[in-house]
């Protein structure tokens, strides 16, 4: 050590001090003159003592070396990095003014008050150095003084605190949007603190009215910096030192406890990341449930990647944590139901309408994509698949193409399912809500149960009939409207005599049309009765509108065949193709 080298050649040492694993060969007089602790040891009954053990001295060997230099009158630099250590060592060694004027206790206190507590940066540095000086730094109120300075300096920032009205307007304007809050300048300074001191600082800031958005941004920044080396995106768990894993677990649980309570102050992607880390580190159940509830409040803002949380299990469970997503969805539905009830009571029963919120449709689309992504998992059970699919409200998905896609992928990945199991999987789909493209694919999908294919064909035929009927009705209405218009024009421009002759002519035209229809019907009956028995050939029908429509409908109806398809039909297996 420096002190040993200085005095070894001049005056032989008469006392040895052990501090922090280091040995110091010194002299009694300089130490006794400044330190009350050493004075009591050497001046009393242990005057012949040659060895002093200071193994529990705050700051260890570094702190004692600076204190010894002060006793010998050597100059050294006092800074924000060593002031807390010097103050604690001076208190331990009882270097007060009772033993010497302007002793180390007074000198360090003066520096703390005049220099170290003037800026937020210096206060954070001193607070950071106190992490290894507990509990004496706490007893000397160094920690509390640093926290007060940090909070007061941060309060000077104009973006720190806002009025209740401003916070309300900010919250309303941020609804249904992913928030990317700006990092306050003081948040970057606080990253160096360990989680215990960080928690105390933010708790004090919340107490005096910290803006919820600033609080969320600071927590995000701190969490990402503190856990940047933690890899929890694969399914396998890496071996982590037990002590370090415990520290990370405490860090996550503390961050979750500090999260703001207002909705939309934390992006849902960050909440999902926290939940993934919490599951990986096996935090408390209360911590994970808190995160699931927070994510449920903002589920409409989530993406598919946010919900793809790996299942860190070795018991043959699914690749992704489906149960967690199920609970998150339940939280979302309960929250939406609560909001709907509140809205209902704000309006009169006759005036209240219950439209489908956009949030519902976004969540429905998200869950459909999630089911399609997790369906290929061999360990995905039917109960989990259908349980999650049934959570999607009926009114939230007017078209079931997304559900059908997930079902098709699931059936393709699980070819060993029997008929009953396939029916259970398909029970979450409404065939009436499939688009024409999905119906065309489902009609040729061999993986679907037969009764599902029949339903698809039936509803598609029914839809086509309605479309054709609407077309004819629109054409008939158009013709009638045109005739009425022409009649009004003629009646307005003609005399009563001309109007009479026009009505007479129209009556004659109608009679002529009826006669033509009777002749056509008579010809059809003659053709049918005039067919020779046993000839085996059906009559050649004239190509009428009714015949053309029947042929088109027959292509979609598996139970109806046209007369020209009843005999000599070659039965060939229809080749079915799947786009999935």
Short description:
This protein is mainly α and 580 residues long. The protein is built from 26 helices and three strands. It is elongated.
Protein architecture, described:
The chain is mostly helical. Helix content is 59%, strand content 2%. It has helices spanning 2-7, 28-34, 36-43, 60-72, 83-92, 104-116, 120-129, 136-139, 142-155, 164-173, 185-189, 195-207, 212-226, 242-258, 268-281, 285-297, 304-307, 322-346, 358-374, 382-389, 401-413, 419-426, 436-442, 450-493, 496-529, 545-554; strands at 15-19, 22-26, 51-53. A three-stranded mixed beta sheet has the order 2-1-3. Helix 15 runs antiparallel to helix 16 (285-297) and helix 19 (358-374) packs parallel to helix 21. The two termini are 76 Å apart. 30% of the residues are buried. Mean pLDDT is 78; it is low at 158-180, 347-355 and 532-580.
Please state how the strands of the largest beta sheet are arranged side by side.
2-1-3
Shape: elongated
What is the alpha-carbon Rg in Å? 43 Å
Helix content: 55-70%
Largest sheet: 3 strands, mixed
Q: Give the strand content.
A: under 5%
């Amino acid at each position: 050590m420096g002190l040993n080298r200085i005095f070894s050649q001049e005056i032989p040492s008469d006392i040895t001090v052990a501090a922090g694993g280091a040995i110091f060969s010194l002299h009694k007089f300089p130490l006794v003159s400044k330190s009350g602790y050493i004075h009591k040891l050497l001046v009393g009954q242990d005057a012949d003592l040659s060895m002093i053990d200071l193994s529990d001295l705050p700051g260890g060997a570094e702190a004692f070396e600076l204190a010894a230099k002060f006793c010998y009158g050597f100059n050294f630099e006092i800074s924000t990095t060593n002031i807390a250590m010097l103050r604690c060592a001076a208190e331990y060694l009882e270097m007060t003014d009772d033993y010497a004027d302007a002793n180390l206790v007074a000198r360090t206190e003066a520096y703390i008050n005049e220099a170290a507590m003037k800026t937020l940066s210096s206060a954070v540095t001193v607070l950071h150095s106190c992490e290894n000086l507990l509990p004496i730094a706490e007893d000397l109120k160094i920690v509390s003084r640093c926290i007060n300075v940090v909070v007061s300096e941060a309060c000077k920032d104009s973006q720190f605190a806002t009025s209740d009205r401003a916070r309300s307007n900010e919250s309303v304007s941020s609804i249904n949007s992913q928030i990317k809050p700006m990092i306050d300048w003081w948040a970057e300074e606080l990253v160096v603190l360990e989680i215990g001191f960080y928690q105390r600082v933010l708790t004090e800031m919340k107490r005096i009215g910290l803006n919820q958005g600033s609080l969320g941004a600071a927590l995000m920044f701190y969490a990402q910096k503190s856990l940047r080396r933690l890899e929890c995106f694969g399914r396998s768990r890496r071996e982590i030192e037990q002590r370090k894993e415990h520290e990370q677990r405490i860090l996550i649980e503390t961050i979750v406890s500090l999260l703001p309570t207002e909705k939309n102050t934390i992006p849902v992607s960050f909440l999902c990341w926290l939940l993934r880390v919490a599951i990986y580190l096996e935090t408390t159940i209360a911590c994970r449930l808190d995160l699931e509830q927070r994510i449920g409040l903002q589920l409409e803002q989530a993406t598919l990647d946010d919900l793809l949380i790996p299942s860190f299990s070795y018991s043959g469970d699914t690749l992704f944590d489906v149960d967690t997503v199920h609970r998150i969805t339940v939280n979302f539905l309960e929250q939406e139901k609560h909001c709907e009830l509140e809205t209902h009571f704000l309006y009169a029963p006759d005036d209240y309408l219950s439209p489908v919120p956009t949030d519902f449709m976004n969540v429905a689309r998200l869950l459909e994509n999630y089911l399609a992504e997790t369906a290929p998992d061999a360990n995905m059970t039917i109960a989990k698949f259908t349980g999650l699919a049934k959570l999607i409200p009926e009114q939230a998905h007017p078209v079931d193409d997304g559900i059908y896609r997930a079902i098709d992928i699931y059936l393709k990945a699980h070819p060993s399912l029997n008929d009953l199991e396939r029916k259970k999987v398909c029970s979450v789909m409404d065939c009436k809500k499939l688009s024409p493209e999905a119906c065309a694919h489902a009609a040729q999908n061999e993986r679907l149960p037969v009764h599902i294919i029949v339903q698809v064909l039936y509803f598609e035929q029914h839809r086509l009939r309605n479309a054709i009927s609407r077309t004819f009705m629109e054409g008939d209405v158009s013709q009638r409207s045109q005739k009425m218009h022409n009649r009004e024009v003629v009646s307005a421009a003609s005399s009563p005599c001309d109007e009479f002759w026009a009505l007479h002519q129209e009556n004659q035209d109608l009679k002529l049309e009826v006669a033509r229809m009777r002749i056509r019907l008579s010809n059809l009956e003659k053709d049918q009765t005039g067919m020779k028995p046993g000839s085996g050939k059906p009559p050649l029908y004239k190509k009428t509108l009714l015949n053309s429509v029947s042929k088109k409908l027959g292509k979609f109806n598996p139970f109806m065949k046209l007369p020209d398809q009843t005999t000599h039909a070659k039965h060939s297996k229809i080749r079915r193709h799947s786009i999935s």
